[in-house]
Amino acid sequence: MNLMSTLIRDEIQEMSAYTVADIPDSCIKLDAMELPCRFPEDMQKELACALAVAEINRYPNPATSGLQQLLKETFQIPKQAQIVLGNGSDELIQLITMLLAKPNAKILSVDPSFVMYRRNAVLFGLEYIGVPLNDDFTLNLTAILSAIKTHQPELIFIAYPNNPTGVPFRHEDVQEIIDAAPGVIVIDEAYGSFSLDSFLPYAGNVEKLVVMRTLSKIGFAGLRLGYACGHSILMNELAKIVPPYNMNQLSLTAAKFALRHYGWVEEQINILKRERSRLSEALSLLPEVKVFASEANFITIRVPDVELVFKALKDSNILIKNLHGSHPLLDQCLRLTVGTFEQNQQVLNVFQHLFSK
Ligand SMILES: *Cc1c(COP(=O)(O)O)cnc(C)c1O
């Protein structure tokens, strides 16, 4: 028998590594909810100057970097909320799971949702309870409240808006889940900037509530900057298990630069939201394509044959996410990140060519 197979935990051996698509630069990358643009050249130069003088000889100190204050001002995070920064919100999901990983602890979320909730449950030995969404990807509140009552989960994750579906949940439903939560509840607002609603104004009010956000989907996936906003009692406990120096000096510098130029970011968000409407309306005109309403920067659709559509897009050098097979509710579903006008036009060309006869 191979040595590692005797040493390494079974549940990890059964996992596969999170793989990132290996794709040529020329590819139109619409698989990972990245913003399709970067700063214009004059701003890039200004950023380069800021990075050039960053104190990379020193360990980073997020607390004195001024970033948290900037986050609070830019996103109107309530005064009473305390912030913990993560190397992407992925790290915060991991740390919050670790924080609550007592023996026999349980995590509850909806299914399908962000894969990292389940993955971290497995990593830290918590039982994962996934409550299925309705067929139209809305919340099944009755089922969730009943599962909460039965399982009494220590930790609940609700992605609001949800990934990979994008369909908005009702605010009142999520509020009921928060009220019913017997433990910590994380509202993961990775797509909050594209959505009409947010729980951020409640951050810091209730001990059990964490509102988590990230810069990844609004133009800065490469910086790896997520932030959790919550009550000081919980955030102080979370702060104890954050690895020292998890944020790096260059990221902190670039993130501060981005927030000082948030007007530019906001413009991109508005353009993207307009493109989302345009793309979903155009796709809705095709009778073969079922378009789900989205409040995120992606659109989930159902087509008669995912393989056919995926391949046609691929042949046109467009990469999207095939959701088929990842959950029964996602039968024949695809997820398209909204791109630039030109990119979306190319996507539409492929669909129109395939379906309008
Ligand atoms: C993309 C995504 C994240 C991860 O964001 P990072 O900050 O890049 O780690 C977290 N939650 C959801 C629901 C996401 O879709």
From TrEMBL:
Care to name a GO molecular-function term for this sequence?
histidinol-phosphate transaminase activity
Q: Which cofactor does it need?
A: pyridoxal 5'-phosphate
Domain spans labelled Aminotransferase class I/classII large: 43-349
N6-(pyridoxal phosphate)lysine found at: K217
Q: Which SUPFAM superfamilies match?
A: PLP-dependent transferases
Q: GO biological process: any one?
A: L-histidine biosynthetic process
Tell me its EC number(s), please: 2.6.1.9
The catalysed reaction is: L-histidinol phosphate + 2-oxoglutarate = 3-(imidazol-4-yl)-2-oxopropyl phosphate + L-glutamate
Q: Which domain of life is it from?
A: Bacteria
Q: From the UniProt record, give the pathway where this protein acts.
A: Amino-acid biosynthesis; L-histidine biosynthesis; L-histidine from 5-phospho-alpha-D-ribose 1-diphosphate: step 7/9
Could you list this entry's UniProt keywords, alphabetically sorted: Amino-acid biosynthesis, Aminotransferase, Histidine biosynthesis, Pyridoxal phosphate, Transferase
What CDD domains does this protein's entry cite? AAT_like
Q: Which HAMAP family match?
A: HisC_aminotrans_2
User: Can you state the subunit structure given in the record?
Assistant: Homodimer.
The protein's matches in PANTHER family, at most eight in alphabetical order, are given as: HISTIDINOL-PHOSPHATE AMINOTRANSFERASE, HISTIDINOL-PHOSPHATE AMINOTRANSFERASE-RELATED
Instruction: State the family named in the UniProt similarity comment for this chain.
Output: Belongs to the class-II pyridoxal-phosphate-dependent aminotransferase family. Histidinol-phosphate aminotransferase subfamily.
Annotated protein name in UniProt:
Histidinol-phosphate aminotransferase
